Q: What sequence folds into this?
């Protein structure tokens, strides 16, 4: 990630490092969710939030679902269990005092 300021403030540096560590840990989580479904997860970014938007299904007909078919309750619980919570960069900005 790029930052366009220079500081030696321990408070600011600690907040930025903490965010970078949190983001790196979060980046590893969607992979686990995707593995649970045999596909890749779709990490997304919206303003200052990072979240998982869903699962990327392949073009294989084996994975296609009829339009009216719903995921089973166990599939939804698996999706929710392995889906990482969204993280928000606002935490870093607040820690810095912005």
A:
């Amino acid at each position: 990630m790029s930052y366009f300021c220079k500081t030696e403030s321990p408070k600011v540096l600690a907040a930025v490092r903490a965010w970078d560590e949190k983001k790196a840990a979060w980046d590893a989580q969607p992979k686990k969710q995707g593995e649970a479904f045999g596909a890749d997860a779709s990490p997304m970014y919206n303003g200052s939030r990072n979240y998982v938007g869903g699962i990327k299904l392949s073009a294989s007909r084996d994975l296609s679902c009829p339009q009216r078919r719903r995921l089973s309750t166990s599939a939804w619980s698996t999706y929710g269990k392995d889906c990482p919570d969204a993280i928000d960069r606002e935490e870093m900005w607040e820690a810095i005092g912005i």
In short: The first strand starts at residue 40 and ends at 46. The mean pLDDT is 79. The longest helix spans residues 10-37.
